[in-house]
Amino acid sequence: MKFGILVNEGPYTHQASDSAYHFTAAALRAGHEIVRVFFYHDGVNNGTRLSVPPQDDRNVSERWSALAEEHDVELILCVAAAQRRGLLDEDEAKRAGKNADNMAPGFQISGLGQLIDAGIQADRTVVFGD
Amino acid sequence: MSVLHIVNKSPYDRNSLDACLRLAQPDSAILLIEDGVYAAIPKASASERVQQALNNHQIYALQPDLQARGINPDNLIDGISLVDYDGFVKLTTDYDKSQSWL
Amino acid sequence: MATKKFLYVNRKAPHGSIYAQESLEVVLIAAAFEQDVSLAFVDDGVYQLLQNQDTGALGSKNFSPTYKALGDYDVSKIYVEQESLEMRGLGKDDLMPLVYEDEDDDWAEKDSIHVVSSSELADIIEQQDVILNF
Q: With an 8 Å Cβ cutoff, is A122 touching chain B?
């Protein structure tokens, strides 16, 4: 089956992102296809490469990046939500005249249409949030 | 099959479980995850509502979330089934759609 | 493109958190995809539709007038749960009037807001293909 995943919360404060990760990993193990993981609201904070969690804790954004690399999973941050919260890729940073970008590998910035498109394409859409 | 309702909040903090029970049709299922698993503990003030709901709904609790919170999976309200993440995925395929009570 | 039934479930009050505002942004974008869209307002979500919201003193964006534009985006199925209104001492008159023009009825202006009982809303949830919660 094809799955679309929506993540509405950032890492560490809420469990939502962890739940979404474990669900996505389990779905891939079971042989399902992940159409897209879409990050919205504070969920866009999952896409930073600048977080430095302590060694004895999981690294949430690196874990998503690894999943994207191993399974070719599309990780999309909503552009409007990302811009509000200071999550920028190289192009966005240039366009906004900022001197830094912070997008983790495997994440991409795109529009809200990608969420609706995931809902259309996927057989199941599962939402994780607060 | 119909809807898989996902509840992720403690019934003692938020009204998500009550909203779910009010708006879930008979034969839809309920999955307790994250802080939602606190609803699975017996002899609590929400237990009676959960027990009644078991007459109309299959109710599942996510084992890793119980374990993380020190809730004994052998001592849940009678009739609640345990699932792990693989079981969670399976439930979402068994039911046509999911509704997360955020 | 296949048409699916999308339901957006709103259970959070506006202004105290961003969920209501960003949820509305999704609905407006979704309109371009020509899917079958319904909105449900349940629990504190009903506060999103209250009249006379004014965020002037907060300096935050007052997005509440945007709900009135939903009709222009062909979003005309807005379900508000009766029990949620009653629990909060509210009635339909406390909500913004939301209307759309019915192209199948000589563009007659019609009410978009449908106040429904819990069991009616339970049926509506059951009929959807995709349910998005914010």
A: no
Q: What structural domains and CATH numbers belong to chain B?
A: 3-97 (3.40.1260.10)
**Which sign does the torsion angle of CA C120, C122, C128, C131 carry?**
positive
Enter the ipTM.
0.96
What is the distance, to the nearest Å, from the Cα of residue A68 to the centroid of all Cα atoms in its chain?
10
pLDDT greater than 70 at residue A37: yes
Confidence bin at A18 (pLDDT 50/70/90): very high
Chain B residues with beta carbon closer than 8 angstroms to that of C42: 19, 23
- Report the residue count for chain A: 130
> Using CA atoms, how far apart are residues C6 and A127, in angstroms rounded to an integer?
13
> Strand pairing partners for B59?
B30
Q: Render pLDDT for A113-122 as a digit per residue (tens, 0 to 9).
A: 999 999 999 9
Q: How many domains does chain C have?
A: 1
Q: Do B100 and A15 touch (CB under 8 A)?
A: no
Average pLDDT (A19-28) is 98
Q: Which residue has the tokens 């192009």?
A: A91
Give yes or no: A78 in active site: yes
Averaged confidence pLDDT in chain A = 97
How many domains, in total, are found in chain A? 1
Helix (H) or strand (E) holding A43: none
Interval C28-41: pLDDT, tens: 999 889 999 999 99
Residues of A in contact with B8 (CB under 8 A): 15-16, 19
What CATH number is associated with residue A37? 3.40.1260.10
What's the CATH code of the domain at C103?
3.40.1260.10
**CB–CB of C25 and A112 under 8 A?**
yes
Domain that holds residue A88: 2-128
Query: Does the beta-carbon distance from A116 to C25 stay under 8 Å?
Result: no
Q: Which one of A85, A120, A125, A126 makes the best mutation probe of the C interface by having the most chain C beta carbons within 10 Å?
A: A120
Q: Provide the domain limits for residue C66.
A: 5-133
What is the pLDDT at residue C1?
Answer: 59
